[in-house]
Amino acid sequence: MRFQIQNSEGRQGRAWSTTYADLPDAEAAVREAMGWDDSVTSDSFAVIDGNGAERVGRCVYPTQEECDADQDGAHAPRIVGDD
Prior knowledge:
This protein starts with a strand and ends with a strand. Strand 4 and strand 5 form a beta hairpin. The protein has two helices and six strands. The chain has one domain (2-82). The radius of gyration is 12 Å and the shape is globular. Strands 1, 2, 3, 4, 5 and 6 form a six-stranded antiparallel sheet that branches. It is α+β, with helices and mostly antiparallel strands and 83 residues long.
């Protein structure tokens, strides 16, 4: 599976233009790009891409508290898996 980072909210950089071979690498790239010391991911959820295909997504947060408090992940960086 390959992973891409989405929902950059205008942020620029290598993290959003790179495809990652595994989830830990993608999560580490989000951490580095955001300047976070640590990160947690949300439970996985379905993401429908522009072609109607279902992909698996996870939002990334700097703390468990922020992850628990976010109801929809609309503004959080998102890691999306692609077969």
